[in-house]
Amino acid sequence: MSHKHAAPARFELHPQLASDTQPVARFPLCDVLLMDNANHPWLVLVPRVAEAEELIDLDDAQQVELMREVARASRVLQTVFQPHKLNVAALGNLVKQLHVHVIARFEDDIAWPRPVWGSADAQPYSPEALIDRIKRLSSALEA
Question: CATH assignment of 15-142, given 3.40.50.2300, 2.40.240.10, 3.30.428.10, 3.20.20.30?
Answer without folding.
Answer: 3.30.428.10
